[in-house]
Amino acid sequence: MIKKLLKKIDYRIIIVIFILFGIGAVGLYSASHGAGGNSDEFTKQMIWFAVGVVCMMAITFFDYKHLKKIWIIVYIVFLALLVGVLFSNRNHGATSWYKIGIFSFQPSEFFKIVLIIGLSSLIAYFHEKEAINKITSLILLLIILAIPSFLIIKQPDYGTALVMIFTFCIMLFIADINIKYIVAGVIVAIIALPLAYHFVLPDHAKTRIMVFINPELDPKGAGYNVIQSKLAVGSGMATGMGLLNGNQTQMGMLPMKTTDFIYSVISEEMGFFVSALIVLLYIILLYRILKVAHLAKDMFGKMICIGAFAMILAHVVENIGMTMGLMPITGIPLPFISYGGSSMLTNFIAIGLVQSVNVRIKNFGL
Questions:
Q1: Does pTM surpass 0.90?
Q2: Residues 6+ apart with CB under 8 A from 299
Q3: Predicted local confidence at residue 221, as pLDDT
Q4: DSSP letter for each residue of 147-199
Q5: What is the pLDDT of residue 366?
Q6: Torsion angles phi and psi, residue 105, rounded to 5
Q7: Residues 152 and 160 sit within 8 Å (Cβ to Cβ)
């Protein structure tokens, strides 16, 4: 049985992930050895990568259909973790992590997977009952999204909440909800966004938005990060300044260079060709995930793949966009490249779920 499943694994997905990680590991090594770097991060990243690969393979062999039976329990457990983390010590201004020895655990990262599984299960159930367009069905789906999103915003972690909302919208769109609900949602968003900006968002969040529009408003404060990032990306030119030779990276001027701005490090030291290769690899990865979703024979498996696709797409667009000033800075990591155990494991779990769907497609023909 295992040999049969091994033959059906989409190894192109795995090869792409390994190349992405390899490029990220080189960038992380360089960033962690410059001014303000921490060489321990490179060692930890290697450990998380190995653990992630094991998790991915274990989930690949696990039949994803069994998740329908346990997702509610997992959902409740992680909701409790999201509540508990609000009472933890602040780290970088947020209460998002549980500290376990030398490692940190971020429940909001893993909740993205829990949400994808929960929404996939409910959408599949409503489709089977032909009730996906009933108001009660949509309200229940919104509640499943709203509760964890509220708790994550309270940390505060707006980036993760936005990724979850984006994933939710893409999954509902693919689930063929009635066009009138899509139009209504767009209208509500148009009305709600300016109201949220004026009456809900805290001052620091408003500042981020204003600085996103014009970083020069506060070049030594809120605009510092994006200015330094754009300098790093631009100075790399075609082939880069060389490993351990990037000005912004090695002199400590580039902030959060192993996490949020690792793409800036790679662009500065390895150049345009490598940074463009990263974008191409993500396109290939996302295409392969969509291919599995298209061939999936059941709605549950299809929606799991769509959820994984949307989650990774949101991270890639937001992270790479913010390094070039095209998106606001939200602290979203770059999949398989940014330093971070919770992020690494979350992405490997997502790929494991996609592979679990893939190896159980009867007419395998990718």
A1: yes
A2: 120, 123, 124, 127, 128, 175
A3: 72
A4: HHHHHHHTTT-HHHHHHHHHHHHHHHHHTT--HHHHHHHHHHHHHHHHHHHHH
A5: 43
A6: -120, 125
A7: yes
Going by C-beta distance under 8 Å and a sequence separation of 6 or more, which residues neighbour residue 220? none
Q: Are 30 and 249 in contact (CB under 8 A)?
A: yes
Nearest CA to 103 among 91, 112, 113?
91
Q: Kindly give, in sequence order, each residue whose CB lies less than 8 Å from that of residue 159, ignoring residues fewer than 6 positions away.
A: 318, 330, 331, 332
CB 116 within 8 A of CB 167: yes
Residues ≥6 apart with Cβ < 8 Å to 45:
25, 28, 339, 344
Q: Tokens 């997992």 belong to which residue?
A: 74
Q: What is the pLDDT of residues 174-193, one digit of tens each?
A: 998 888 888 888 898 888 88
Rounded to the nearest 10°, the torsion over CA 307, 310, 313, 315 is -80
**Helix intervals (H) in the chain:** 2-8, 11-32, 40-61, 67-85, 107-128, 135-153, 158-174, 179-199, 203-213, 224-235, 247-250, 262-295, 299-323, 341-358
- Residue 156's Cβ-count burial label (10 Å; 0-12, 13-18, 19+) is middle
Contact of 60 with 9, CB cutoff 8 Å: yes
Residues 82, 151 contacting (CB under 8 angstroms): yes
Are the C-beta atoms of 128 and 150 separated by less than 8 Å?
no
The residue count of the chain comes to: 366
Residue-wise DSSP of 4-26: HHHHHS-HHHHHHHHHHHHHHHH
Phi and psi torsions of 205, nearest 5°: -70, -40
- Contact predicate 362/20, CB 8 Å: no
